Amino acid sequence: MTWQIEVFHDGACPLCRREVDLLRRLDRGRGRIRFTDIAAPGFDPAAHGRTLDAFMARLQGRLPDGTWVEGVEVFRRLYAAVGFGPLVGLTRLPGLSHLLDAGYRVFARNRLRWTGRCEDACEVRPAPR
Questions:
Q1: How many distinct helices (H) and strands (E) make up the chain?
Q2: One digit per residue, pLDDT tens: the chain, 129 residues?
Q3: Is the dihedral of CA 33, 106, 17, 89 positive or negative?
Q4: Which of 34, 51, 76, 95 shows its CA 20 to 30 Å from the CA of 43?
């Protein structure tokens, strides 16, 4: 089986690392998820047609056909890839979907502060649209 989604995660983020570790265990070596650490030495965002600010602003994922997905949709695809499809479907219900999207936006704006990685300015700039 080939991968179903590539996730571009911040390996320097403790919360993100925990989530990635959980997903690796749930994937059980099947390779349904391709993990790319944007904090790794040598990671070149330009090679993916994006900026580091864009990768830092929101969780990014890429499907095998090259389609990009962002934010909560990446989590949906990740958890569907490891067998939680029926539960993922519930996250698409109108009220719950909006709540999850809003919660993720708050997390994305504050994750550096909440994970103790602020130095001078602790704001992730929104990715250009």
A1: 5, 4
A2: 589 999 999 999 888 899 999 999 999 989 999 999 999 999 999 999 999 999 999 999 999 999 999 999 999 999 999 999 999 999 999 999 999 999 999 988 888 787 776 665 555 555 555
A3: negative
A4: 76
> Based on the number of CB atoms within 10 Å of its own CB, is 86 exposed (0-12), middle (13-18) or buried (19 or more)?
exposed
Do 56 and 44 form a contact (C-beta atoms < 8 A)? Answer: no
**Tokens (6 digits) for 27:** 């994937």
Q: Are strands 5-9 and 33-37 parallel, antiparallel or unpaired?
A: parallel
Q: Which two tokens stand for residue 111?
A: 């994750």
Spell out the domains of the chain, with CATH numbers in brackets. Answer: 5-114 (3.40.30)
